[in-house]
Specification:
Length: about 200
């Protein structure tokens, strides 16, 4: 049995760092954002161009051109999601199938809007990455091209951190440094190993 752990967290909470820790422990991780970037360079490009003409350059989706067409237009954004979400799901299913074939005891699905899209229902448990609000804000505003206004727009679309933590099976606080986050991840891996070991008996 391969245990599916959903990984999520609001912007700036340290989700990418936490995913990297799992990878360093040999755990297969499916990164939804990375999958979208890869699909935009491959099989999704002609589909996006057909739906939104003029949004690809040399067979690759130009995210700025696409954003100009869909941001602020809920109907167009919904049409884009109808195109992309099934491709991301298929990509995730492929990783899971390969992990199961290899006998991997654990896989991680890294999904930014895990609860918001209902993807948590496909997981055996959910890990929420968190940090203090002041740490989150400092991290986000340090990013290139990020403004307080843009941060506010992103923040309001995401489920509140407190609600995510309330629903979570596991929590990693990344505000105490990398070594501490690594120790938290190791404890979660050990906990899942013990749990799956019990279910196999």
């Amino acid at each position: 049995m391969t245990f599916i752990l959903g990984l999520t967290g609001s912007i700036g909470m340290g989700k990418s760092t936490t995913a990297a820790i799992f990878r360093s422990r040999g755990v297969p991780v499916h990164d939804a954002d990375e999958a979208v970037h890869r699909l935009y360079r491959g099989r999704a490009a002609p589909l996006v161009e057909a739906e939104f003409p003029g949004t690809t350059v040399d067979g690759v989706v130009d995210r700025a051109k696409l954003g100009a067409k869909v941001i602020g237009h809920p109907d167009r954004m919904a049409a884009l999601e109808r195109l992309i979400h099934p491709l991301v799901r298929a990509d995730r299913d492929d990783l899971l199938a390969r992990a199961r074939a290899a006998g991997a005891p654990l896989v991680v699905f890294d999904v930014p809007l895990l609860y918001e899209t209902g993807a948590d229902k496909e997981c055996d448990a959910v890990l929420v990455v968190t940090a203090a609000p002041e740490i989150q804000r400092e991290r986000v505003l340090a990013r290139p091209d990020m403004t307080p206004e843009r941060f506010a727009l992103i923040h309001v679309k995401q489920m509140p951190d407190a609600e995510k933590r309330r629903r979570a099976d596991f929590i990693v606080d990344t505000g105490r440094g990398l070594a501490d986050a690594e120790a938290q991840v190791d404890a979660i891996i050990a906990s899942i190993a013990a749990r799956t070991g019990e279910t196999k008996d």
